[in-house]
Design brief:
about 725 residues, alpha+beta, Heat Shock Protein 90, 4 domains, 21 strands, HATPase_C_sf, kinase, histidine kinase
């Protein structure tokens, strides 16, 4: 005989109030949720009214002209917490009749937002074709008590249509006994911004509109600018589209709105091609891992494809970008209006089937980390307070993007992380083109370049943290301290010597790259001696910069020695990315030469070129099957055929360059989503400091075969042995 007993869950009736209280973050979100319910009901218009605020008779009314509910829907859906009515409708792809919508709701909890707002709720609804309208009243003070949910009964009344007379239909929810006693001017203005932002402000036509009424408090909304007032002040407009295959196209426009500035408008249309992704910062660490241990869909991909978009689907974006530079603002109308609006509303919002996913783009939300990524790249990166933007998703295709139960964004799963990478990658074209126009604008305004703020503390602290985690901090702390001290000393030297911000930017670029390599070595479990060697190399690089500032530190070195050192540094990466490397000079198949150069800088320059080649090869050849001949090829050799002197040649069969050489070597210009725009500028600077030049020859110029049809770069040394 068993002693086991069986019991049923018996929730208290108060759980309904708790659902509203605990699941919905604030009063504005609760109203937002009721408006979304109206959208799901196929409404065209919603009116939100806050009446008699500050009095015992205060109320909130949300009225729509949607499908309404009949008695069966009230009984089987509205009265059933967690009813899967909308979620099932979405999964089955059943769209609404009037506007062909898929429902936003999926958990059956949104209707409990009413309980966040007040103690007394009156629901009046009339379904299409129903001869009567139905009414439900809930007074929590009267019905809650200490009873159980199963014992709670509510009456559904029916009457001749009064609220929805004639052929009208829809639902009206009236909430009284408000939980929020006082609605300040700021509360109402924030509510207005939130309610009016439920639909994309950039959409030309809308099939869903929301109106906010504040009888007796209209003055609180006076002076609020519309988004149209602000968009007319944007200097840059950028749109993009990403299809289901990962093919990316974009349009960029610079619109000169500045008084007294003679600068032509400019429009660029990007050709259809795969969207390039950032090269994940910890990718190098994964090179040492077995492939089965690597996590995340497409983590090491650098282009978007169908698999990467699974559960996200196609998407579009529209950006209006502003300039808050003082010299620019003085040449614009109503600059204070623009800056105040951007302070409150700047950011990138997300819309799904044209309805906003809260709270992306709110003042306290930086879901893409725009402000952080701009800290050390202030010249090129956009921040939240200079952009008004919308990302548009398809509800039908974005099934893996699941909204949190508290209605504050998506669950931060793998699909969400991929979405972030996609949106950040889409900014690369905007930021590259915008940089060109910003430079033209600065030249006209006579603005001089200043010293940028580059802080090496975050990456160096990351090194310390990782060293402590793998318990090598005591051994490596002296090396890390030396790197930090030499960077600070070099920064002071640059500033006091009158060097431009570019010099410091280049140093920081190499610090950042070196730290990434060290972190990768830490995470892959490298030997302590190897870690120390990498730390010493980074320290010597900084020392190399210092000696060059004193015009010393240049020594004679053979090209083969330099190529061998750069190859050895990257040999594991060639193997991991399945790149066929051709170095004829290391096989005595081409002529060697000797030149005077700054060794540490030249090793860094050659490594920069290899880094670039590895990235762009993966853009052109994203899929390489194990065990098969790789399509990815890099050539590192020498040539004596160029004017100016012997050269080291780095060539690949990637997509090649699409920009002019003067733009490629321009500081902060990049088409890589994660690029600083300093790699080729650094190479150019290193060559100049070594008495040489950076050139971009053709394959025929340096005797290469047609298989190297991508980027070809020549490091030309004018100062060979015996020179100055």
């Amino acid at each position: 005989m068993s002693d086991d007993s069986a019991f049923r869950f018996r929730p208290k009736a108060r759980i309904l109030r708790l659902l509203g209280d605990e699941l919905i973050g604030n009063q504005r979100l609760a109203i937002f949720e009721l408006v979304k319910n109206a959208y799901d009901a196929d409404a065209e218009e919603v009116v939100v009214t806050l009446a008699q605020l500050g009095t015992p008779s205060a109320s909130i009314t949300v009225r729509d002209d949607g499908d309404g509910m009949d008695e069966a829907t009230i009984r089987d859906v509205w009265f059933v917490p967690g009813a899967d009515h909308r979620g099932r409708q979405r999964r089955e792809g059943r769209r609404t009749q009037r506007f062909s919508r898929l429902p936003l709701g999926e958990k059956g909890l949104g209707r409990f937002a009413v309980h966040k707002l007040g103690e007394r709720i009156r629901l009046v609804t009339r379904a299409i074709g129903d001869p009567v309208e139905r009414q439900v009243e809930i007074d929590w003070d009267k019905i809650l008590g200490d009873g159980y949910l199963e014992d709670l009964q509510l009456q559904v009344g029916k009457r001749e249509p009064v609220t929805f007379p004639g052929d009208s239909h829809g639902t009206e929810v009236v909430i009284e006994g408000l939980r929020q006693d006082e609605w300040t001017r700021g509360d109402l203005r924030r509510l207005y911004r939130q309610v009016t932002s439920i639909c994309s402000p950039f959409a030309a036509e809308r099939e869903f509109s929301v109106e906010l009424k504040l009888p007796g408090r209209e003055i609180d909304l006076e002076g609020l600018p519309t988004v149209g007032d602000i968009l007319d002040k944007a200097l840059w407009h950028y749109t993009f589209s990403l299809d289901e295959q990962g093919q990316f196209t974009w349009t960029y426009a610079f619109i000169n709105r500045l008084v007294g500035v003679d600068l032509a408008n400019r429009t660029v249309n990007g050709m259809l091609q795969p969207l390039q992704l950032d090269d994940q910062a910890d990718e190098a660490a994964e090179e040492a891992m077995p492939r089965k241990q690597r996590r995340g869909k497409g983590r090491n991909r650098v282009v978007v494809d169908t698999d990467f978009l699974k559960g996200i689907g196609p998407l579009e974006g529209e950006f209006f970008v502003f300039d808050r530079d003082k010299e620019v603002l003085t040449r614009m109308s109503e600059p204070d209006l623009m800056t105040r609006y951007l302070n409150e509303n700047g950011g990138i919002r997300v819309y799904r089937d044209a309805i906003r996913v809260y709270n992306y783009g709110e003042r306290g939300d930086d879901w893409l980390g725009l402000d952080l990524r701009r800290v050390n790249q202030p010249t090129i990166r956009v921040s939240r307070n200079v952009v008004l933007a919308a990302i548009n998703l398809s509800l039908e295709h974005s099934t893996d993007l699941v909204e949190k139960t508290n209605r504050e964004g998506f669950v931060e799963n793998d699909a969400y992380r991929r979405l972030r990478r996609i949106v950040l990658a889409s900014l690369a074209a905007l930021e590259a083109e915008r940089q060109d126009d910003k430079d033209r604008l600065r030249q006209l305004l006579g603005k001089k370049e200043g010293i940028e703020r580059f802080d090496a503390s975050p990456p160096i602290e990351a090194l310390r943290k990782e060293a402590k985690r793998i318990q090598v901090d005591e051994a490596l702390e002296p090396f890390i301290n030396r790197i930090e001290a030499e960077f600070d000393a070099l920064k002071d030297t640059l500033v006091h010597a009158g060097f431009s911000g570019m010099g410091l930017a280049v140093v920081f670029h190499e610090i950042d790259r070196g730290v990434r390599e060290l972190l990768a070595a830490f995470k892959s479990g490298g030997e302590r001696s190897a870690l120390e060697r990498k730390a010493i190399d980074l320290s010597q690089l900084l020392d190399g910069f210092s000696t060059l500032l004193r015009r010393s530190g240049r020594k004679s070195m053979r090209a083969s020695e330099l190529i061998r050192q750069a190859r050895d540094i990257s040999v594991a990466r060639f193997r991991y990315h399945q790149v066929t490397l051709h170095c004829p000079i290391l096989e005595n198949a081409s002529q060697d030469f000797e030149a005077v150069m700054a060794r540490e800088l030249m090793v860094g320059a050659l490594t920069n070129l290899i880094d670039n080649a590895l990235y762009w090869l993966r853009v052109r050849w994203p899929d390489v099957s194990a065990g098969e001949p790789s399509a990815r090829k890099i050539h590192i050799g020498t040539s004596l055929d160029l004017e100016g002197g012997p050269a080291i040649i780095v060539a690949d069969n990637g997509p090649g360059f699409r920009d002019l050489p003067e733009l490629l070597t321009k500081p902060f210009f990049t088409r890589r989503p994660d690029g600083m725009g300093l790699g080729l500028y650094y190479v150019k600077l290193a060559m100049e400091l070594s008495g040489g030049t950076l050139q971009f020859p053709s394959a025929a110029d340096v005797g290469l075969s047609d298989e190297y049809d991508g980027a070809i770069i020549a490091l030309v040394f004018n100062n060979t042995k015996g020179g100055g």
